[in-house]
Amino acid sequence: MSQQFQVGDYVNIDLELEIVQSLQHGHGGWTDNMFECLGATGIVQSLDEDYDIVVVYPSGNRWTLNPALLTRVDLTSEQKLALQRQQTTANMARTTAAAVPHQALKVNDMVQICSDLEKMKIYQRGHGEWAEAMVPALGKVGRVIHLYADGDVKVQVSGGSWIFNPLAVTKVDQTHSTEGGNEERLNAMLKKLFDAQLTGDIHEELVKAAANGDLKRVEDLLKRPNIDVNGIFAGHTALQAAAQNGHKQIIHLLIKDNANLEIEDKDGDRAVHHAAFGNEPEILELLAKAGADLNVRNKRRQTPLHIGVCKGHFDVCKILLSNGAHAGIQDSDGDTPLHDAISKRRDDLINILLENNADVGTCNNNGFNSIHHSALRGNSSAIELILSKIQNRQWLVDEKKDDGFTALHLAALNDHCLAAELLLTKGNASINIQNNSLQTALHLAVGRQHLQIVNLLCSKNANINLADKDGDTCLHEALRHHTLSQLKQLQDVGDSGKTMNIFTNINGYDKRPSVVIACTLVSYGADLCIKNLKNQTPFDLCPDPHLCRILTQKNIEYKQEHSKNQLLTETSSSVECLVCSDNKRDTLFQPCSHIVTCHSCASRVKKCLLCKENVQTRIKIEQCKICSERKASVMYKPCGHLIACEECAGVSTKCLACRASIDSTVSFHELCCSETNDSISVKPEISTTTVPSNTISDAVALARLQQQLQEIREQVHCPICMDRLKNMVFLCGHGICQNCGDRVQECPICRKQIEKSIILYT
CATH no. for residue 748? Predict the structure, then answer.
């Protein structure tokens, strides 16, 4: 979790409105009532299962926020007391308002339910919530059967019982007459109203009977001459009511009576939407066989699959997908069902969507594709599943948003270490890729003081010295952050007697995140002398002399260690056989005098791998002829014999093999390289010099472009002949070329019968 927030922390939002709205997507969303969050300090109340933060504000409102928005603040005791007093006042006002209707009601009281649907949806927030099945209760009289401690009331009404906000019910006054007969008559009237609730609307009775599963009543009503099977009550048809409540026999009856499967309610929901909401997979299969459109969208542009995923109904999603529901349709926010499944952290839903060809590359209205969204939410299991499905589309891992952020940037920004590690190890994400501000993931991690991410990126060989658009390297950013934190501490101290020691007080100094990050960067090779566009080195941004001394010492240690490692690397690479890479080089080629292979591989080499000269003689290198303890490693010149080790070669003036005078010697390392012979022409593909980094990056970019081109070809070419472009589509949404289309009777993709084909013109 970002910054490791704890319950009771005081937090502010210091970001601009557009950024806040963007980051809130998928973390509770944004409403106009949340403007109070931008100008007030809140208190962390709890942490939910998605690692989002619930913050309570002085008004008493509680908002679920993305932890990336929040900055911990330190308040004085007076400020804390004032903030707590404001919240206490707000809570008391709310409690008093809720307590009034609670005190005015008792069990067995008769109450009338509010008839305004929109008001009811507002009243029910936080009070049992609103359900479409509650529609028949609107405006009806019911009986209070239970009172809850928080003021909510449970009311028996319209053949069922629901929990209501006390503000949503009105007590029906009963005249307390001394004449028992009057009271009896009044109670009888109320009971009759409560039990019957008859209005004379035959379609109301049909919808209610269908919702309650009363098969006999539905059969009787459908026999009436003036009945309309598609009649609407409270915005719903009988088919929609039965679909949501899972009454299969009634749906069979309504479909047999020619009920319209595609009628919409006021929210644009059809029977298939209601069945998905009610977790009724069997009803969905029945509706699909009857010809219902499973890809239809409501006014929020949601398909039944969107609703099934959002509600977490796995069986509903499975039935929809098996009956041809499209896995990649976007809602009004641009989210696909895959985006929703990632937000819900439902690996089973993610897996089944991916198996049914959900498009990972589709972006929502905020520019997040599924990999971006997983990284933003820190859903590492989703990232792992997605990466396993896109092995031929690896370029998607480095796909950028409009602001240049990749999935790795988002994971680093939000301190999702496991997600970042998966992107790097399994997704081969480009660790040094830069956003529109030329920031790498390491820049963002340093700026947010995410130590774990910094360590990960450094250990994966991130380029620490890359500069952003201001010319700042990661070390500039780290030391700037350290200085700002020191100045803030200086301001908080206030006492001039303590300010002199603020930079020299090192109690727990080395454990501060800003210090640890700066030291880590230098330990991995951060340059202390690079200047930004303001002509500032990192040390120019750090007035802390103690930290400067530490970093200078770390820099010296790094250079010493780097030199030692470089020597070891050169030595190990020079003794490794260039053919098998398993054994050490131990064979001298003549006449070029190069050592490039082991004795086992030497017989297979016809030309020297370094100079391309024909190999005439292969001489296995033996033990030193002088000490017989070490391998011979020095060649005598001009005779060309290699018979002595380094220690013994220095004491000889003549070659022991031919007794010729020794003019000079050549070391084993030099014999392994091409520089021992000036006439040798080394070709680029066998050069032992380092390939420039820009050449490597160009090759990677070329490979990605080739992958993208291949994917585009697959999308636009006919899936049958693979030669011609698609220029004919069917009603199922799939397409092929006209030549192939004229010869098929069913879609080659989904196997549905072709009812109509449409020619595309370009």
Answer: 3.30.40.10
Total number of domains constituting the chain: 5
Please indicate, yes or no, if residue 559 is contained in any of the structural domains.
yes
Would residue 728 be called left, alpha or beta, if left means φ above 0 and alpha means ψ between -120 and 50 degrees?
A: beta
Specify the pLDDT at position 41.
85
Q: What angle do CA 396, 402, 405 make, to 5 degrees?
A: 60
Structure tokens at 550: 């530490």
- What's this model's pTM, rounded to 2 decimal places? 0.57
DSSP secondary structure string, 692-761?
Answer: PHHHHHHHHHHHHHHHHHHHHHHHHB-TTTSSSBP-EEETTS-EE-HHHHTT-SB-TTT--B---EEE--
Residue 203 lies in a domain: no
Per-residue pLDDT tens digits for 311-357: 999 999 999 999 989 998 999 999 999 999 999 999 999 999 999 98
Helices (H) and strands (E) in the chain, counts: 29, 21
Of 453, 440, 421, nearest to 2 by C-alpha is 453
Strand (E) or helix (H) holding 562: helix 545-575
Check whether residue 78 and residue 124 sit in a common domain: no
- Specify the amino acid at residue 349: L
Q: Is the pLDDT of residue 502 over 60?
A: no
Average pLDDT over residues 274-294: 93
Q: What angle do CA 636, 642, 646 make, to 5 degrees?
A: 75
In whole angstroms, how far apart are CA 731 and each of 296, 305, 750, 757? 14, 20, 11, 7
Do residues 523 and 603 both lie within one domain?
A: no
148 or 482, which is more confident: 482
Domain span holding position 750: 717-759
User: Which residues are within 8 A (CB) of 452 and not within 5 positions of it... i.e. 6 or more apart?
Assistant: 415, 417
